[in-house]
From TrEMBL, chain B:
Residues of the full protein shown: 25 to 177 of 182
Role, per record: Immune regulatory cytokine.
BP GO annotations: immune response; negative regulation of extrinsic apoptotic signaling pathway; negative regulation of low-density lipoprotein particle clearance; positive regulation of intrinsic apoptotic signaling pathway; reactive oxygen species metabolic process
Keyword entries, A-Z: Cytokine, Disulfide bond, Secreted, Signal
Protein name per UniProt: Interleukin family protein
Source organism: Sus scrofa
GO cellular component terms given for this protein: extracellular space
Similarity remark: Belongs to the IL-10 family.
Name of the gene: IL19
Length: 221, 153
């Protein structure tokens, strides 16, 4: 039964949260209706196409987000989405996003980081994040394949001297040399793509210790 | 485009566009029409045709879009002018490249360019200009993609 478009306030702050092309539409409940049993219905639009399309899994839902990754998976196209609030027989007007361009707006997640240590060096191996995929059986696409100019900002922190520095690298292996033996170093890595600024999500901080200096050990004996 | 290397301050152009994106795209109420439609034109262009396509699209924006668009908001106007000046500079650079016969135009690029002009002609001129300005991010992303390695100089 269609609802009656009444004075019900619209949902607010409707935006896409996009990470590695996983595109989630999210919004805030209408203001001033705390405690009311509000449900929501979502539609989306492919820029240049003809009409708004329903997202059946996001019809009359009570949550305030909707996964539109499948519908917006062609990242070189642009999209709109809209949500309306429903309370009983009444519904709000649509609240609409701006034009969403996944290729330029998706956040690039952090790479996988593998560390191996030596006495005075740490080897870092980075694996580019993967593009979101509909189901696990699908073959993986690396974000590097989409953004061939993908770079990494590697931040290193010496926990003994409290000294921190960072390096921007394009390849996937990096050796940190001339380090202090028997010292804990912590490493954080962010993915970067030249072009419009994007929110960055650093990797989990990983800490490893360089090995004890074997030469000084021998002298002591 | 890489053979015909042009140094462009893409960041400045992208920043200017970010300043107008929301306002300009909001003025474009015809969501069911696109001018630089990804599938038909730009994304079918091969690297060999990238230089010619860039030259054609710069001319499209400089000779039609920026001329047809009338902007009353001084802030938007300043950013649009900044983009236009950057495009004029890029045109000059590409012109030298063209003279050295490094920017050859094949039929594919000519066809794709004609589709864009046809799309533009089907709309009322002010609406067409607004829509084309709102689609600058498609063109800039395409330049970035076809121009990596020098655009972040």
């Amino acid at each position: 039964v269609p609802c009656i478009s009444s004075g019900l306030p619209k949902p607010t702050n409707i935006t896409f949260l996009s990470i590695n092309m996983k595109n989630i539409l999210q919004w805030n409940p209408p203001e001033g209706l705390h405690g009311a049993e509000i449900t929501y219905t979502v539609q989306y639009f492919i820029y240049g196409q003809k009409k708004w399309l329903n997202k059946s899994e996001c019809r009359n839902i009570s949550r305030t987000y909707c996964d539109l990754s499948v519908e917006t998976s062609d990242y070189e196209h642009q999209y709109y989405a809209k949500v309306k609030a429903i309370w009983g027989m009444n519904c709000s007007k649509w609240a609409e996003t701006g034009r969403f361009y996944p290729f330029l707006e998706t956040q690039i997640g952090p790479p996988e980081v593998a560390l191996t240590t030596d006495e005075k060096s740490i080897s870092i191996v980075l694996t580019a994040p993967e593009k979101w995929k509909k189901n696990p059986e699908e073959s993986s696409i690396s974000m590097q394949q989409i953004y061939s100019n993908l770079k990494y900002n590697v931040s290193i922190y010496n926990t003994k001297s409290n000294r921190m520095w960072s390096q921007c690298v394009t390849n996937h292996t990096l050796v940190l040399s001339w380090l202090e033996p028997d010292t804990v170093y912590c490493v954080l890595v962010e993915s970067l793509v030249p072009g419009p600024p994007r929110l960055a999500r650093p990797s989990e901080k990983q800490c490893v210790s360089t090995l004890k200096d074997q030469t000084s050990e021998l002298k002591v004996k | 485009l890489r053979r015909c290397l042009i140094s462009i301050d893409m960041h400045r152009i992208e920043e200017s566009f970010r300043g107008i994106k929301k306002a300009i795209q909001a003025k474009d109420t015809m969501q069911n029409v696109t001018i630089l439609s990804p599938s038909e034109s730009l994304h079918s262009i091969k690297p060999l045709d990238a230089c010619c396509m860039t030259k054609n699209l710069l001319a499209f924006y400089v000779d039609r879009v920026f001329k047809d668009h009338q902007e009353l908001d001084p802030q938007l106007l300043r950013k649009i002018s900044s983009i236009a000046n950057s495009f004029l500079y890029m045109q000059k650079t590409l012109q030298q490249c063209h003279e050295q016969r490094l920017c050859h135009c094949r039929q594919e690029a000519t066809n794709a360019t004609r589709i864009i002009h046809d799309n533009y002609d089907q709309l009322e001129v002010r609406s067409a200009a607004i829509k084309s300005l709102g689609e600058l991010d498609i063109f800039l992303a395409w330049i970035d993609k076809n121009h990596q390695g020098t655009s972040d100089a």
